[in-house]
Amino acid sequence: AQTVTQSQPEMSVQEAETVTLSCTYDTSENNYYLFWYKQPPSRQMILVIRQEAYKQQNATENRFSVNFQKAAKSFSLKISDSQLGDTAMYFCAFMNLWDGSSNTGKLIFGQGTTLQVKP
Amino acid sequence: ETGVTQTPRHLVMGMTNKKSLKCEQHLGHNAMYWYKQSAKKPLELMFVYSLEERVENNSVPSRFSPECPNSSHLFLHLHTLQPEDSALYLCASSQDRSSYNSPLHFGNGTRLTVT
Fold it and tell me: pLDDT (tens digit, 9 = 90+) per residue, B19-30?
């Protein structure tokens, strides 16, 4: 079974600084997707960034980028120039490619990392 | 306007009560989901509906009963719940089921407290 582990329950960073959130996962599959979601105090989960496992190039979305290490099964999120609005809980998630079977296509989440951006 | 609207935002109910959570999506999506978010635990997928047909029941106790009358609405009917069912219940939708190009859009959740 696939699992996703976020080893940092809480982190903090000063405004304008850079922070990296770690995520590791376990799977025997070769093709899959990885995601980072953000959940601010409003509680709505928002997609931050996504990565296809067969792409070696790390995904980037403005101030958010990932360090995808497929062999190490690691998928960390780097937030540059942190802003107060980045304060939220961040979830790493994994999804197998959909093949119609019940074990694929499910989005499996980690436990989350609470990030506090300090002024 | 989030695109996915959940009501109520908060709900307190006794163990003998019957209540329902409502979810509505305005995105024209074909798949809808219920997730349970408990403190210090990963989000747990409860149910998946695709084109109004339930395609996933993730070993959820029968005291939780989903209903999807059409592709825009999803309900979660609750009865005889236990205190450990207290959690944040999140509804989500996606254009198609389980596609990289069809990410989940979440609502703001219903915070449920069972007393």
Answer: 999 999 999 999
